[in-house]
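=== Given protein ===
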Amino acid sequence: MATLKSETGSDALGFVGWTLYAMVGLCFCLVAFEFVGIRLPVSDSPGLRLLEILAYSAIGCAMLHLILTVVYAFVRTISATLLAGLEIVLGFAERLGTTLAQFAIRLLLALARLALVPVVWPWRTFQARVLAPWQERRRQTAELRRLYADVKDQYRTFDDFLRAFNGESRNDKDTRKDDRRDERADPAPADAFAAACALFGLAAADSFTNAAFKAAYRKRMKEAHPDLSGNTALAAKLNEARDLINARKGWKR
């Protein structure tokens, strides 16, 4: 009994639904035909009038169903188009945001490097001109000391090893020292007599005596004589200057 009652109730709801649907279709058909200006024929016979009502209801339901289908398809198409456009906009915004973020990061890095220029440039200059040569000299000295440790019994000191390594001798080193001392002490005068006097530490304008000149000559020759590990070229130059001064002053050797 409960099952029959349930089925009966379901059939009743279905009948009511179809009846309402038919009435809505009939009303829609009448309104549509009235809107377009079509007058529907009306029969005098009750049977034909019932058939006309059913036909008009079917036509209205079909038209309503078609319109609803078109509207649904249109709304669905518009929704899909909007969603696709929204996805495109979101993707573009994401790429644009990523590009802007990368640009901002690069700009910040460039500004940071620019701000560090006053600090980095002096440090690099100091490193290239002072620190790097000093480190290179230390490295070379350490390498030479390792080499010196292997041949230590052949040289008295590390300086002797350095002179031998550079192809120099003690006399060559002393000669260069004398040359540098002469260059510092003897600026180039205007004439040969002034140059000769300056070589002995005497001024050409002073009226120095023969004894003072001989004392200056002996002092300089002790420093430059070849027998005393001096400079042969400097000794010859001193002798030429002595002869020039004696000739100018009228002195004898």
In short: The helical segments are 2-36, 46-150, 158-165, 170-185, 192-199, 210-224, 232-249. Residues 224 and 231 are 5 Å apart (CA to CA).
